[in-house]
Amino acid sequence: MSERKTTNVEVRLPSRMGFEKVAMSTAASVAKLMGFREDRIEDLKTAVAEACINAIEHGNRLNEKLSVGVILAAGEDSLEVKVIDDGKGMKTQPAKPDIDRKMHGQEDPRGMGMFLIQALVDEAEWVAGTNGKSSYVRLVIRLDKDQA
């Protein structure tokens, strides 16, 4: 029985807009080392940035005393990213936005981040923390067989 190897990289970010770029760069570096195609790396960067912005803005409510944790777990054929904040989290998975209504100004143009995340990665899961603390989003992006 072969043992699956996983390499973890952890980053702790201040809850201040702009620091999502540190997580983006870190995720891109790990994905590049794993052999992901450039287009998939760009998808990952966007998804990680959206998840970090949500954690900073909604989870930690821009409270600079709180931090956002980012844990990247590089496996043999996939990369899992957890973005952890101190918010209560969501009770349900995000609903699909009505893009036509948003485009025509009939709905707030914001609120597309979670939908975008789901479209860019292979798996996205929002997990509410216990006792109203440490919620996270878990993203998984898989290497295509022809990439590895």
Topology (SSEs and partners):
Blueprint: E1 7-14, H1 20-34, H2 38-59, E2 67-74, E3 78-85, H3 99-103, H4 113-120, E4 123-127, E5 135-142
Antiparallel strand pairs: 1-2, 2-3, 3-5, 4-5
Helix pairs in contact: 1-2, 2-4
What does this molecule look like?
- The protein has 148 residues and is α+β, with helices and mostly antiparallel strands.
- It has one domain (7-142): Histidine kinase-like ATPase, C-terminal domain (Heat Shock Protein 90).
- Helix content is 34%, strand content 25%.
- It is built from 4 helices and 5 strands.
- It has helices at residues 20-34, 38-59, 99-103, 113-120; strands spanning 7-14, 67-74, 78-85, 123-127, 135-142.
- Strands 1-2-3-5-4 form a 5-stranded antiparallel β-sheet, with helices on one face.
- Strand 2 (67-74) and strand 3 (78-85) form a beta hairpin.
- Helix 1 packs antiparallel against helix 2 (38-59).
- The protein is globular, with a radius of gyration of 16 Å.
- It starts with 6 loop residues before the first strand and ends in a 6-residue tail after the last strand.
